[in-house]
Amino acid sequence: MSATLIGYARCSTDSQDLAAQRQTLQELGVAEDRIYTDHGLTGTARVRPGLDQALAAVRKGDTLVVAKLDRLARSVPDARSIADRLRERGVKLALGQALYDPGDPMGKMFFNILATFAEFEADLIRMRTREGMAIARARGKLRGKQPKLSDKQQRELSRMHATGEYSISDLAELFSVSRPTVYRTLNRCRTP
Asked: Could you tell me which residues come within 8 angstroms of residue 51 by beta carbon, excluding any fewer than 6 positions away?
């Protein structure tokens, strides 16, 4: 039985494209029909159907190929869990051109170091994002999602509810909004 290359590609948002990762995997020798993908799922998401399919497809002696480690996992515990599953099944891991054998002490050490850097990079991105949002909020540029109803509509909805003649469902239908929007509007109007 010959060893097979199984590819995995992932992008975090629906607006991102998997084409570059697919091309890289094909250039590394993975057949198009052996590439499994997750689209719009973060590396920290626990449910990744494409990754589950890729891990189910690999057999002893095969190699799981990923363009970069951060496409596989964004935390050290997750990366170790995946590496342990590969080691138990006798599967090697290729990150780009580099081949790692999770069963080999040196391969395991290098993989853990790479996983630590991938997690560090993800933490830096989250920190920069939070800092940027805090600065934007302080400058009044980040105000959050705007209410669906204008101030005048909110006052009218609150007045109509206070009469007791309209149910929440009636108000939702009259104003063409959801029931949760009606509840949020009423809470907002009650808060001074």
From this structure: 8, 10, 36, 38, 72, 82
**Mean pLDDT of successive 10-residue stretches along the chain, which has 192 residues:** 85 79 93 91 72 93 90 82 88 87 81 82 87 86 81 92 93 93 89 64
Quickly count: other Cβ atoms within 10 Å of residue 11's Cβ: 20
Active-site hit among 12, 75, 158, 176: 12
User: CA-CA distance, 90 to 140, in Å (whole number)?
Assistant: 55
Phi, psi of 91 (to 5 degrees): -110, 140
Alpha-carbon distance of 140 to 2, in angstroms, equals: 61
Concerning whether 12 is annotated as a catalytic residue, the answer is yes
- The answer to whether 41 and 10 have CB atoms below 8 angstroms apart is yes
Q: Strands, DSSP E only, in 19-165?
A: 35-39, 63-66, 92-95, 98-100
Contact 95, 69 (CB under 8 A): yes
Q: How many helices (H) and strands (E) does the chain have?
A: 8, 5
> Which residues are 37's β-sheet partners?
9
pTM: 0.62
The CA distance from 167 to 55, in Å, is 52
Show the CA angle centred on residue 180, arms to residues 174 and 186, nearest 5°.
75
